[in-house]
């Protein structure tokens, strides 16, 4: 990494080492984006690259048994890798409450948030972080996030979670679980898997991670990244966004970007790398990125539906049954996870790790 200027070093120390996050920095009253957060021109999202006429499908899932619904889901997973669902059964109040809880947590005084900063937290099932991997990023991302890990078999992982948001996260997760199960059932049926048995369940969804993402108001969002282009490593991700917008997904031409408009009450679903690998590329784990907001604090709440750490995944036998060549090898999830977190967000590069 090239040497940084002394100002950037000071900011890095304040934001990362002292655990104040980008929220803490914005609270000091900065009026411009510091150099540490300024992307090279090539990395910025150029307005001309956004195609306003395109949009990802919005699917009404009030009847999961309707063949049209299941077909739309599998088609969207193959073509776009991204879709929104409405009438999914998670009550609106639960969605509002978890977004409010995110504002509640990040609205706490610095020293209260800092109790959960990575390294300080009373439990490794909840950690507060900033950017993505600030140790290896020359330019940081304009985002702090509180990560909740659900560990299989843990009686009550939430006992030491922050009181200001714990109940809302637990309730949201509880209500989202049946939706996750349904989505995976439909998507796996589309790959000729008849039933999700215990072993498959472990590989598909044993260790979900919930994040409360916080993108504080940014003096010049065009210069910086809320999140750089990346694909998720999950099987699927269920994302709740607020009404600010700012999420963009790679268009099918692989060059331009499509905005994901906020739809009240909807959940944004995307296919992650693992399901792309399991499907031997039938489903697509699409790159996406976030631009922070110039006037408001933005929150989002993704659930990354992940395998257990010692799960091994690769193209499914059902998919290869007709003699199709596997495009990926078998990979241990914890190895894939470590590789993802060893570098900055870099498009779909993590998938090279599993390619044959
Ligand atoms: O904030 C968002 O809308 C998306 C965040 C995201 O892509 C991620 O956390 O992986
Ligand atoms: Fe993502």
From TrEMBL:
Pfam family, one: DIOX_N
Protein name according to UniProt: Feruloyl CoA ortho-hydroxylase 1-like
Cofactor field: L-ascorbate
Keyword Transcription: no
Swiss-Prot/TrEMBL keywords: Dioxygenase, Iron, Metal-binding, Oxidoreductase
InterPro entries reported for this sequence: DIOX_N, IPNS-like_FE2OG_OXY, IPNS-like_sf, Oxoglu/Fe-dep_dioxygenase_dom, Plant_2OG-oxidoreductases
Phylogenetic placement of the source organism: Eukaryota, Viridiplantae, Streptophyta, Embryophyta, Tracheophyta
Domain of life where this protein originates: Eukaryota
Domain Fe2OG dioxygenase, first and last residues per copy: 205-307
Molecular-function annotations in GO: dioxygenase activity; metal ion binding
Family: Belongs to the iron/ascorbate-dependent oxidoreductase family.
Annotated GO biological process: coumarin biosynthetic process
Gene (UniProt): LOC110412130
């Amino acid at each position: 990494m090239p040497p940084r200027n002394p100002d950037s070093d000071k900011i890095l120390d304040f934001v990362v080492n002292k655990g104040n996050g980008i929220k803490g920095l914005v609270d000091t009253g900065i009026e411009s984006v510091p150099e540490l957060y300024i992307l090279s021109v090539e990395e910025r999202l150029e307005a001309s690259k956004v195609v306003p006429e395109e949009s990802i499908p919005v699917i009404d899932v009030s009847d999961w048994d309707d063949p049209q619904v299941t077909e739309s889901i599998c088609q969207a997973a193959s073509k776009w890798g991204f879709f929104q669902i409405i009438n999914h059964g998670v009550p609106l109040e639960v969605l509002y409450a978890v977004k409010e809880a995110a504002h509640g947590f990040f609205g706490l005084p610095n020293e209260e948030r800092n109790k959960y900063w990575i390294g300080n937290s009373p439990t490794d099932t909840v950690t507060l972080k900033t950017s993505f991997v600030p140790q290896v990023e020359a330019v940081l991302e304009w985002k702090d996030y509180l990560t909740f890990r659900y560990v299989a078999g843990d009686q009550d992982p939430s006992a030491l979670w922050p009181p200001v948001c714990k109940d809302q996260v637990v309730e949201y997760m509880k209500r989202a679980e049946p939706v996750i199960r349904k989505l995976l059932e439909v998507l796996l049926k589309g790959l000729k898997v008849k039933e999700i048995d215990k072993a498959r369940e472990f590989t598909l969804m044993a260790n979900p991670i919930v994040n409360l993402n916080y993108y504080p108001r940014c003096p010049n969002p065009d210069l910086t990244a809320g999140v750089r282009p990346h694909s998720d490593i999950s099987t699927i991700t269920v994302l709740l966004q607020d009404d600010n917008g700012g999420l963009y997904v790679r268009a099918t031409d692989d060059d331009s970007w499509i905005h994901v408009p906020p739809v009240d009450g909807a959940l944004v679903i995307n296919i992650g790398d693992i399901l792309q690998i399991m499907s031997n590329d039938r489903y697509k784990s699409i790159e996406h990125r976030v631009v922070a907001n110039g006037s408001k604090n933005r929150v989002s709440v993704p659930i990354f539906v992940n395998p257990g750490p010692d799960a091994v995944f690769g193209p499914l036998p059902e998919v290869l049954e007709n003699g199709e060549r596997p495009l990926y090898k078998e990979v241990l999830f914890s190895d894939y996870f470590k590789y993802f977190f060893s570098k900055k967000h870099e498009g779909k590069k993590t998938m090279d790790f599993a390619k044959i």
